[in-house]
Amino acid sequence: MTSRARKSPVPAGPPDTRVSLRAAAEQALSRAAGAPLVAGNDLRVLRDAVENYPAWDAAIDRAQTSIHVEMYIIERDAIGRRFVERLASRARDGVTVRLLYDWFGCGTGPALGLFRPLVRAGGQVRAFNRPALGAALGWVRRNHRKLIAVDGRIAFISGLCVSVKWEGDARRGLEPWRDTGVVLTGPAVAHAETAFADTWRHAGGVLDDEDLPAPCGLEPAGAINVRIVATAPFTASMLRLDLLMAALARESLWITDAYFVDHGPYVSSLRRAAEGGVDVRLLLPRDSDLGWTVTASRTLYRSLLEVGVRIFEWNGAMIHAKTAVVDGRWARIGSSNLNLTSWITNWEIDVAVEDRGVGATLQAHFDDDLARATEIVLKRGRRTRNRSPAPVRVRARGSMRRVARTMSGVGRSMGAAVIGSRPLADFEFVPLLAGGCLLVGVAALAWWQPQAFVWPLAALAAWTGITLLIDAVLLLAGGRRP
Fold first, then answer.
1. 147 by DSSP, 3-state: which?
2. Spacing of C-alpha 193 from chain mean position
3. For 120, phi and psi rounded to 5 degrees?
4. Residue 126 — φ and ψ, nearest 5°?
5. Potential cystine with 155: which of 149, 368, 395, 454 (Cβ 3.0-4.6 Å)?
6. For residues 360-392, b (16+ Cβ closer than 10 Å) or e, as one string?
7. How does DSSP classify residue 75?
């Protein structure tokens, strides 16, 4: 399903002009990403758990001094327990193991003893951003990073978490999730280690700068230029970089994303790139563990298809990769999805690469993935699908985490219906019906049992008030919130 990229008529210009434009582009990229371009690295793209997990295991087994893990989800299943036991084994051998997990992403696993073997072996384990009395709503921000750094010499950055979902289980009929990561060596590893140190300290851990590698202290490992884009809430570094890359694209912009949700400026940037002759393609899930995100993504299809953007939906269990490749030259791989949660409120980490070899690899993977995808096309004024195999449904666990996100999807459709911000799609019937029934039920309950609403509101007001008072007292005492 390969097609030749369309070239936009951009004049080459004299050599001195091209050099100045290149320098301006480099400056713009560095400022947008908030990360310097680091030369002298080697980087290899790893596809799916079948390539990522063995590479992680091998690096952990060879560790001599330190292992740093920052992971959004480590499930309490066979894969998660195996991973924790491998870390515990290295801790017993005297390797310093620091593991930072997101309390929300890991759910009940830690409370049920998932990390107990590692702690008993001497490893350091910290939860990130738990609910706290002094920050009423601070817990909504997530550490969504997937980073492993070993001995300050090798780093893995990816979209993969630690769960049987990525490896699959043929006996239970679970197909592995499709995902992408990288293994990195060279001076840029020092920047990945610094990113880990920042969040480790944010979670209350201690990690001295002397224990971290300096970029100048790491020998060049190759000829690949990279940026380690480690974002924190409200920095929007990845959003700025994504917008800039869409603006710089001249020939092609191929994107794979797991949770592509409405964001006007970025959708406009894709539209403008396509209108300018760029071959813009999106590969998105057809079925998802967060089903509402598929519905939210599809509300954007028509506006993109009408200007020539090609959209494909993955027919496998779940495509979880977060990658983009521009003109076969610039690429980004990591944990950031194309939505405001990743761009604005989460801690994320991505690697932005300037290398034609890496770009060619990602383009080849994208072409291979299209063989298992359904292209969405416009026909007679309506959105239709081409013929494709039946989709494989994702078997999702029931959890409060998933329920909360599903309700968020209902809210998006309801918001569009109430304020008229965009045309509604026919497949939004279910969210609107659910939202309407919910609101009518809420109104009925409020009429008959008003105390059911007054008490929760009072509790939220009290929690927020206590938060403000604690901050005020700390400021008066010359302290600060940890």
1. strand
2. 19
3. -65, -30
4. -135, 140
5. 149
6. ebbbebbeebbebbbbbeeeeeebeeeeeeeeb
7. -
Sign of the Cα torsion 464, 469, 472, 473 reads: negative
Please report how the helices 78-92 and 48-62 are oriented relative to each other, as an axis angle in degrees rounded to 10: 20
Residue 106 has a CB neighbour count (10 Å cut-off) of 23
Q: Smallest Cα–Cα separation from 177: which of 341, 396, 343? A: 396
Q: Give me the residues paired with residue 132 across strands.
A: 135
Q: What is the pLDDT of residue 408?
A: 47
Residue 398's pLDDT is 42
pLDDT digits (tens, 9 = 90+) for 18-61: 556 667 777 888 888 889 999 999 999 999 999 999 999 999 99
Name the one residue in this structure whose structure tokens are 């919130």.
Answer: 481
Strand residues in 277-322 grouped as ranges (E):
279-285, 310-314
260 three-state secondary structure: coil
CB atoms within 10 A of CB 455: 10
- Rounded-to-integer distance, Cα 475 and Cα 58, Å: 48
Backbone angles phi, psi at 292, to 5 degrees: -65, -25
Which residues are 32's β-sheet partners?
A: none
List of E strands, 103-223: 124-128, 146-150, 154-158, 180-185
41's CB contacts (< 8 A; 6+ apart) are 184, 185, 186, 187, 188, 189, 220, 221, 222, 224, 225, 226
- The model carries a pTM of 0.81
Residue among 368, 257, 272 nearest 321 (CA): 257
pLDDT tens-digit readout, 66-118: 999 999 999 999 999 999 999 999 999 999 999 999 999 999 999 999 999 99
Neighbours of 226 (CB within 10 A): 32
Q: How many CB atoms lie within 10 A of CB 328?
A: 19
Q: Judge residue 303's burial from the number of C-beta atoms within 10 Å of its C-beta, 0-12 exposed, 13-18 middle, 19 or more buried.
A: middle
CB 231 within 8 A of CB 346: yes
The strand pair at 66-71 and 124-128 is best described as: unpaired
- Cα–Cα distance list, 428 to 276, 299, 431 (Å): 31, 9, 5
**What values do phi and psi take at 144, rounded to 5?**
-100, 10
Query: Which structure tokens are listed for 346?
Result: 């989460």
Torsion of CA 265, 268, 269, 272, to 10 degrees: -160
Distance CA 269, CA 275 (A): 10
Those residues with Cβ within 8 angstroms of residue 34's Cβ, 6 or more apart along the chain or in another chain: 229, 231, 235, 237, 240
